[in-house]
Amino acid sequence: MKNSTDMVIGNVITGIEKESIAKELGIEPGSRLLYINGQPVEDIIDYKYLISDEHIVVDILKDGEEWEYEIDKDYDEDIG
């Protein structure tokens, strides 16, 4: 099983866990993670810090279009 540090390089999503929030939302490898709660995501450190909230808003660039997802999760749950 990959851990979340294997899933984001820079702000490019490189993998999605099978039973994850990201998979349920249709987020795909190759998409770019632009913002979490309005804060830019430059690298894995930003990602790990910003996903710690239980309610997050994630902006993704997928297939040339920007998508916004509102996610409610457990405090220690990764989005995958």
Structural class by helix and strand composition: alpha+beta
How large, in whole angstroms, is the Cα Rg?
11 Å
Number of helices: 2
Shape call: globular
What is the fold's blueprint, element by element?
Layout: E1 8-9, E2 12-13, H1 21-25, E3 32-36, E4 39-40, H2 44-50, E5 55-62, E6 65-72
Antiparallel strand pairs: 1-2, 3-4, 3-5, 5-6
Features:
single chain; 80 residues; alpha+beta; Pdz3 Domain; four-stranded antiparallel sheet; 2 helices; 34% strand; disordered N terminus
General description of the model:
The protein has 80 residues and is of the alpha+beta class. It has helices at residues 21-25, 44-50; strands at 8-9, 12-13, 32-36, 39-40, 55-62, 65-72. The protein has a single domain (4-72), classed as Pdz3 Domain (Roll), CATH 2.30.42. The protein is built from two helices and six strands, in the order E-E-H-E-E-H-E-E. The strands form two sheets. A four-stranded antiparallel beta sheet has the order 4-3-5-6, with helices on one face. It starts with 7 loop residues before the first strand and ends in an 8-residue tail after the last strand.
